[in-house]
């Protein structure tokens, strides 16, 4: 017999309807008897009937209102409610004659608790461990946890908790309503629980006694009936809803707070008052409170996690409090999940039903804490006790836990629970271990489909095979990308999805969303899990494909932005992924700067439409890694119609396009110098004349060099002012212009080592913002129409006689202040740009008497991954790169500065050769000369002592 206790009254309506039919059917007989006694009986019967109807409806509406309808937001919870409609059977109804007899007045002797109550017999002492080693290990771990929490979140004693301000006025009008839910199966503890609840210092609002699939259902119902308290209701079903049934019932409460108790918990008489007060504090209002909790396993030395029930293992975690090891709580402790009792706001209960649980057979305790943290940022806490006052204990008789134990003593249940907590940790659950020992990895990859796994595989494997690098991958799981399918795509054994070791994380987004097609489910699931994983592992970058689902992209962006440790989201176009394997060679500290730089392309053009067409095609064929790359066209006043049409119709998918056209002819010096000006210290300008052509890898070279030598906090290279795409074949500044081969020159170091050179490049180079501002100011102060009047005369340099050349002024400034350019160095001078030496402002100009051999300037373009040529397949450390002076002679960076200081021809005179002009890099303006080495923060790095 199953059903709701209150339904006995509700279902009496069936009998009343029958009684009414009997009454109507008997009216003819009553008319035949006109005696006075008959009329009296009729009147009394009608009066009795009216009273019965009144009493029936009165009792119904005074009984606890328990609506079994669930909220539509919880799909799987709704299924449970629908099951209830099928499994809940109407209670046994007394027959008409029995009820009629009772209505006439037959009195039934009421039963009392003393008639039906049973008590558990505990004939054993509390278990105590005599294992000295385990006592030591457990005590040490508990102390470590408590010390960490005291420093990180603060912990309070019971007295301190009760002294905190609470929203609940326990003695005033703002007293909380608390519904207590008692879940019973076999233990004979119901009377003890009801007795202590009736004596609470804070009265309860309702008590619901649940019996789902219990063999003791009838005796439990008799006990509830014996208390004869309208606040206490009995709810039963022959269907076993397992451990989620009590939380499903908690959704129905109208109270402010819910206290859910297992049948082995006998709370002290002050527990409702203590729990309500703490739940009303600002600090713990968004928490679930209890009296018993568990801290999940810590990582072992072999980087695996043990079972939470592993014997003689410190890493197996803690059970708190633990009488077996004499661990009692004198301060509140945050745990990974609570057991046996849960006290929380009714609103928080809904969180349990957002995701379908891993299993319905067990683990609702972990699932609740996991979901609360994942979606509500709520913690789980075990309250301290007053050891001298047993009424403050939530578990006054711990030995009950060993009576009729049904959950964690069996091996298969332990395995299920181990799998459950590991899946939670793998999906971003921040356990106490994770909080105490935050990890640091280089990259966390995310794939929402198996195809995305395959696309990311080369870069993931490069990270994992690089010494000193750590990288993991998270997959959506379920129908989107099952972990086993991802492992197969990566050529990993499927065992990686089961072993408790960090490598691949299954977020189970597809499995948890069920049949829902809502984009909110995916966004919420990915965001919540990735937020946790990022907080646990602190990756420098989160890497995924650029064409990933927009909702997933949004979720990943939100998750990375919430991390205070500056995790950067990197979105890579699939064709580019095999081209950026050098990413794994960057320092961990450089990776977060992946998106900081903004490289703009600035093209100077006028009337060489065929040259410009070739340049634009080469730019369009290059790899851009998903970055936004603005492009601008800078045209002089004499630009031809064909060029205007070409730049107007040119489509650039990588960023904004800007067209600039001068009104008055300015010449090359103005066209170049005015083509770009930095908007920030992360704005870099690539200057290209229209007879240049670039390699498909040019942008990768720039990005790699900036990250390795400019954005790495561990690299100090203030002398670097630009990055060249081109490798020269001549010594340009010497009158004889001898040929020069850097591959041969540096063969003793490495034939293909990049190098620093004091000569700037005008045939494809990226210029740095700080030094470009300096250059603007410098050229403005030094520009003269007559080159002979220029005060800077570099000894033995043919640049002294150059006229109308912006490059001449840049050479002068770099020489005086010790700046250098980074140059590529590959076989046969293969480069990332080449000059086709087509007629223009300088080449074939009327006043240019220098003859140019095209073979001295036109170099082959790199058409393959340049990483294969670098020393060791990667950029050497900055300290190992060789440096050359203006004349291609080896000289240290310090020596270059000393030479500039010795010349003493900068825009501000210096007193001696040990002083260099200081520059404000925000404005480019020089300030008073200062001794080398005395460098304020905002001044030029060129003041470093040689």
Automatic annotation (TrEMBL):
Residues 926-946 are annotated as: Disordered. Keywords: Membrane, Transmembrane, Transmembrane helix. InterPro entries: Nucleotide-diphossugar_trans. PANTHER family: GLYCOSYLTRANSFERASE FAMILY PROTEIN 2, OSJNBA0004B13.7 PROTEIN. The keyword Phosphoprotein does not apply. The chain crosses the membrane at residues 40-62. The keyword Cell cycle does not apply. This is Glycosyltransferase family protein 2. It comes from Prunus dulcis (Almond).
């Amino acid at each position: 017999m199953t059903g709701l206790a209150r339904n006995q009254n509700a279902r009496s309506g069936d009998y009343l309807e029958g009684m009414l039919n009997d009454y109507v059917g008997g009216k003819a007989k009553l008319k035949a008897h006109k005696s006075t006694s008959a009329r009296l009986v009729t009147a009394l019967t009608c009066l009795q009937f009216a009273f019965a109807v009144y009493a029936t409806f009165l009792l119904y509406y005074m009984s606890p209102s328990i609506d079994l309808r669930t909220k539509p937001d919880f799909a799987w919870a709704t299924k449970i409610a629908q099951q209830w409609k099928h499994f809940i059977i109407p209670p046994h109804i007394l027959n008409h004659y029995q009820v009629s007899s009772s209505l006439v007045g037959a009195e039934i002797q009421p039963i009392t608790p003393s008639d039906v109550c049973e008590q558990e017999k505990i004939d054993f002492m509390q278990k105590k461990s005599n294992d000295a080693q385990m006592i030591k290990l457990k005590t040490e771990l508990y102390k470590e946890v408590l010390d960490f929490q005291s420093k990180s979140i603060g912990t309070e004693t019971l007295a301190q908790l009760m002294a905190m301000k609470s929203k609940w006025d326990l003695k005033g009008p703002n007293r909380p309503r608390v519904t207590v839910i008692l879940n019973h199966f076999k233990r004979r503890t119901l009377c003890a629980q009801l007795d202590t609840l009736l004596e609470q210092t804070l009265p309860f609002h309702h008590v619901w006694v649940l019996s789902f699939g219990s063999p003791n259902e009838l005796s439990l119902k008799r006990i509830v009936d014996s208390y004869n308290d309208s606040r206490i209701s009995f709810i039963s079903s022959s269907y076993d809803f397992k451990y989620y049934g009590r939380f499903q019932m908690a959704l129905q409460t109208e109270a402010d707070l819910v206290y859910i108790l297992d049948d082995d918990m006998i709370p002290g008489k002050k527990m409702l008052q203590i729990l309500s007060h703490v739940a009303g504090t600002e600090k713990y209002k968004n928490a679930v409170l209890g009296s018993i909790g568990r801290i999940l396993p810590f990582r072992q030395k072999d980087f695996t996690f043990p079972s939470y029930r592993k014997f003689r293992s410190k890493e197996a975690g803690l059970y708190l409090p633990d009488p077996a090891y004499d661990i009692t709580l004198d301060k509140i402790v945050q745990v990974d999940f609570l057991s046996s009792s849960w006290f929380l706001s009714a609103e928080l209960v809904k969180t349990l039903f957002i995701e379908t649980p891993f299993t319905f057979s067990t683990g609702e305790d972990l699932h609740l804490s996991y979901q609360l943290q994942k979606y509500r940022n709520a913690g789980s806490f075990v309250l301290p006790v007053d050891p001298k006052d047993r009424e403050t204990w939530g578990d006054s008789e711990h030995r009950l836990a060993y009576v009729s134990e049904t959950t964690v003593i069996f091996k298969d249940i332990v395995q299920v629970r181990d799998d459950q907590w590991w899946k939670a940790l793998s999906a971003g659950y921040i356990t106490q271990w994770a909080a105490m020992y935050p990890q640091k990895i280089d990259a966390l990859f995310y794939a929402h489909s198996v195809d995305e796994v395959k696309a990311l595989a080369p870069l993931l494997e490069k990270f994992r095979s690089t010494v000193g690098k750590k990288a993991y991958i998270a997959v959506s799981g379920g129908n989107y990308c099952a972990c086993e399918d991802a492992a197969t795509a990566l050529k990993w054994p499927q065992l990686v999805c089961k072993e408790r070791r960090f490598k691949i994380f299954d977020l189970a987004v597809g499995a948890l969303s069920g049949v829902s097609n809502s984009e909110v489910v995916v966004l919420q699931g990915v965001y919540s899990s990735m937020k946790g994983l990022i907080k646990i592992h602190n990756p420098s970058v989160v890497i995924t494909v650029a064409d990933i689902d927009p909702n997933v992209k949004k979720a990943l962006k939100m998750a990375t932005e919430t991390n205070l440790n500056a995790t950067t989201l990197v979105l890579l176009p699939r064709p580019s992924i095999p081209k950026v394997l050098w990413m794994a060679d960057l320092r961990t500290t450089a990776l977060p700067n992946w998106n900081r730089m903004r490289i703009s392309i600035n093209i100077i053009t006028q009337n060489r439409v065929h040259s410009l067409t070739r340049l634009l095609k080469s730019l369009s064929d290059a790899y851009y890694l998903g970055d936004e790359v603005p492009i601008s066209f800078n045209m002089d006043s004499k630009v031809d119609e064909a060029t205007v049409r070409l730049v107007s119709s040119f489509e650039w998918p990588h960023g904004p396009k800007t067209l600039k056209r001068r009104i008055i002819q300015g010449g090359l010096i103005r066209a170049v110098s005015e083509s770009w000006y930095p908007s920030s210290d992360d704005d870099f300008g690539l200057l290209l004349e229209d007879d240049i052509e670039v390699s498909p890898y040019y942008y990768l070279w720039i990005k790699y060099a900036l990250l390795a030598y400019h954005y790495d906090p561990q690299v100090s290279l203030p002398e670097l002012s630009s990055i060249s795409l081109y490798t020269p074949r001549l010594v340009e500044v010497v009158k004889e212009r001898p040929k020069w081969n850097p591959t041969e020159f540096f063969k003793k170091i490495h034939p293909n080592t990049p190098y620093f050179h004091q000569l700037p490049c005008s045939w494809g180079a990226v210029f740095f913002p700080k030094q470009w501002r300096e250059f603007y100011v410098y050229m403005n102060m030094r520009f003269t129409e007559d080159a002979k009047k220029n005060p800077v005369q570099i000894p033995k340099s043919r640049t002294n006689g150059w006229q109308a050349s912006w490059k001449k002024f840049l050479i002068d400034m770099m020489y005086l202040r010790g700046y250098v350019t980074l140059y590529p160095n590959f076989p046969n001078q293969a480069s990332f740009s080449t000059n086709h030496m087509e007629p223009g402002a300088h080449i074939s100009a009327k006043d240019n008497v220098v003859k140019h051999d095209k073979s001295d300037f036109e170099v082959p373009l790199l058409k393959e991954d340049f990483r294969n040529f670098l020393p060791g397949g990667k950029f050497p450390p900055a300290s190992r790169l060789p440096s050359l002076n203006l004349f291609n002679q080896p000289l240290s960076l310090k020596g270059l500065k000393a030479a500039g200081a010795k010349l003493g021809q900068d825009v501000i005179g210096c007193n001696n050769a040990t002083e260099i002009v200081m520059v404000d890099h925000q404005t480019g303006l020089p300030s008073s000369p200062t001794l080398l080495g005395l460098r304020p923060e905002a001044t030029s790095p060129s003041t470093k002592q040689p």
